[in-house]
């Protein structure tokens, strides 16, 4: 369906990871092909102990990325327990090629967030979700990982670094609407301003329900992500109405054409914010051809939100450049505009939410 895409895999097109050679873009694969594994090694890097800290033996030029090898990496959620919970969604009934359909039920570890507050305990909450959900192997692709010497990062395309960057994009788009939005957009933004922190948590968990890198048509990961969000958010100081609303926005932002989207202006607006935020991070895995298509989608979503006379294309260029900067700061690989391999500090950003946030804080916000 034209114009309806999966923000993570490009709708009906599955995603093939690019080759390791710098400058070589990703190649399009058919929906019938399963996805290959990530590259196994990053050239030119050496890591002594990723659980403790980085060795000085590295090809990175930025000394701020290096930590003394005897300095433990603090984990703000180290004492947060978890318990298994079965998450069930309606099966899609579709497959890639002749592969089996995915099960409707999967068991996830849900962190115990009882008594915590989004206002006072944000760091603990996000790190607990990262540790127990976003840093765990995919149920259906347990080898979907990257290895840098002895360090392993699971689900690197949709782990906590992706969630943290999505929250940052949402923040900047929020500020864009305040500064350059249409009167109608500013009015709606004011109406949902009390839900901003809830929406950030939803943005962080938008792809938490993925069990592999399969396209949207194969798996209802949007429903599963919404249920995982509810399982966490229901424990916090958030009203049930706001939890249900944010979960619905997770579902609808997946842009599944089979969903019966809400027609409330507030929901249409919020859905656009989340979708734009997610699109900005596609620089990590989409080549120039695919990014041109995605920038067209961002323009379709963003233009109605901005005031008259605002140069939408220039604004989008700033968002995309911001995405490139955030991926670079967190050590994520880049595919657009040129291919850049994963860097050392991607491991620490993946394991530790606070460290990831500290790196993202170094970015220069776009000037609207």
UniProtKB/TrEMBL annotation:
Start-end of Basic and acidic residues biased regions: 40-52
Pfam families: SidE_PDE
Residues in SidE PDE domain copies: 131-335
Biased composition (Polar residues): 1-19
Domain of life: Bacteria
Region listing for Disordered, in residue ranges: 1-100
Protein name (record): SidE PDE domain-containing protein
Organism encoding this protein: Endozoicomonas elysicola
